[in-house]
């Protein structure tokens, strides 16, 4: 008479499977937390006013030759041959060195000069105006407040409503498009590009 052998489940293999799944969950959760922490740290560093300014030697290594010449040596880039003179995308322009918000595309206009031109800064306190008597001319220089970088000059021949033209070198700026403001740590400026509440409701009515 043949005997029937019952195959009993190995409880040890089930425990191993559960421990494996638990370990995988812990690893995934840890990776997500680490990525979030690194993102938060990156955003905090971009807008940290107490962060020390890089030395000129560090800036020479970090910046391109044109960026260093403009920002640290008060140079001027070639008109019509720079990054943003004809940029029409929505977004903000920040200081190439500190990341400080300087100008908005909402205030940008075509001045015909070949350099990015704005009617006003994104916040008056983010730029500093200084008298400039170089090259035999009397002008008003514009510098970044945090970086003390040369940005360009401001003139009184701009359009309404300010009548001013902030003529700025592209090399002193970094452009951040609207769709990347949150990712880059500038989500507080998204509201600049959203229509007022009344217009939003009107747009929803057919």
Relevant terms:
5 helices; 9 strands; 6-stranded antiparallel β-sheet; single chain; 206 residues; 3-stranded antiparallel β-sheet; alpha+beta; 31% helix; disordered C terminus
What does this structure look like?
With 206 residues, the chain is an alpha+beta fold. It has helices at 11-46, 56-62, 65-73, 181-184, 197-204; strands spanning 91-95, 101-104, 108-109, 117-118, 127-132, 139-144, 150-155, 165-168, 173-177. A six-stranded antiparallel sheet has the order 3-4-8-7-6-5. It is elongated and about 85 Å long.
**How does the major sheet shape up?**
6 strands, antiparallel
The separation of the N and C termini measures 85 Å
Question: Which strand order spans the largest sheet, edge to edge or round the barrel?
Answer: 3-4-8-7-6-5
Structure annotation, total helices? 5
Number of strands: 9
Oligomeric nature of the chains? single chain
Residue windows where pLDDT falls under 50 for at least 5 positions: 39-45, 200-206
Dominant shape: elongated
């Amino acid at each position: 008479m043949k005997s029937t052998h019952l195959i009993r489940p190995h409880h040890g293999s089930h425990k191993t499977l559960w421990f494996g799944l638990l370990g995988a969950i812990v690893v995934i959760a840890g990776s997500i937390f680490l990525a979030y922490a690194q993102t938060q740290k990156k955003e905090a560093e971009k807008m940290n006013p107490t962060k020390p300014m890089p030395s000129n030697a560090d800036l020479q290594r970090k910046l391109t030759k044109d960026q260093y010449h403009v920002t640290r040596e008060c140079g001027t880039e070639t008109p019509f041959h720079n990054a943003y003179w004809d940029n029409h995308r929505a977004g903000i322009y920040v200081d190439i060195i500190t990341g400080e918000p300087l100008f908005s595309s909402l205030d940008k206009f075509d001045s015909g000069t070949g350099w990015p031109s704005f009617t006003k800064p994104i916040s008056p306190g983010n730029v500093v105006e200084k008298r400039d008597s170089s090259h035999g001319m009397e002008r008003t220089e514009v510098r970044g407040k945090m970086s003390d970088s040369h940005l360009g000059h401001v003139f009184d021949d701009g359009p309404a409503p300010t009548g001013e033209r902030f003529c700025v070198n592209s090399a002193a700026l970094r452009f951040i498009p609207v769709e990347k403001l949150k990712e880059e740590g500038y989500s507080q400026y998204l509201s600049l590009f959203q229509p007022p509440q009344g217009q939003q409701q009107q747009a929803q009515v057919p």
